[in-house]
Amino acid sequence: MPNQKILYITTEMYPYQEDTNMAAVVNKMALKMHQEGNDVRVFMPRFGQISERKFQLHEVIRLSGMNIIINDLDQPLIIKVASLPGERLQVYFIDNEEYFKRKQYYFDDEGNPFEDNDERAIFFARGVIETIKKLNWVPDVIHLNGWMSSFVPIYLKTYYESDTYFKDAKIVLSLYNEKDAELDKKIDEKLQFDNISGLKALDNPTIKSFVIESMNYVDAVVKGDEFLDEDLDKAFNETAAQKSEYLDIDSINQLY
Q1: How far apart are CA 246 and CA 185, in angstroms?
Q2: Strand locations in the chain, DSSP E?
Q3: Would you give the distance in Å from CA 193 to the centre of its chain?
Q4: I want to staple 17 with a disulfide (CB 3.0 to 4.6 A). Which of 2, 12, 57, 143 is the partner?
Q5: Parallel, antiparallel, or unpaired: how do β-strands 5-10 and 220-223 relate?
Q6: Are strands 5-10 and 141-145 parallel, antiparallel or unpaired?
């Protein structure tokens, strides 16, 4: 079914990240949908490991320059864009010196999670939503990949609930076995600043608990990894959202 507007929100995508299932799956899904005649856009964080020179990222001045308030602090939103190498597929990068310049993803060299991982996820989610609106491009399908993207549906169905911009978009969540970690205990205060409260994930805020929480705010959940760990598999089986087992790339359009 071509001519759909499909938005992929992801934390990983080949070739910007290599050797992970998520990065490969997102690349193949986005390319397949693009080549079938859909209008596809990809949004991801501009992690410090992604070479701007190698991948020819450049700042989009008309989209940058917005500030997003996280925990009462103004954080400047910088938007960069590149075409997927060899393809006419646009990838947008959410950037901010404070949150994404560091070379590691979520853990420091000793293996400890960054204390601001929660703020980075909030900034990413809100940055994507605000930029899409600024693009004046309304997606039919929003496909989420990676734990940071799980904050997007939570924000869309709470903070942005009265905003009709995304009201007709269907949200799909892919589940992957990502390394779990605790999030800052004060995340409840930061979310309360955006009038978000009452989430079950706040009882024990972790990367995984927010992925599980986000299942309550999406239309469909699909296994991104063929076999999920016990907690994710249990949540997958219990969710009220439409469910799909692992799909090979040739079958992904059935989901849409």
Answers
A1: 33
A2: 5-10, 39-45, 58-59, 66-70, 73-83, 90-95, 141-145, 170-175, 220-223, 242-244
A3: 21
A4: 12
A5: unpaired
A6: parallel
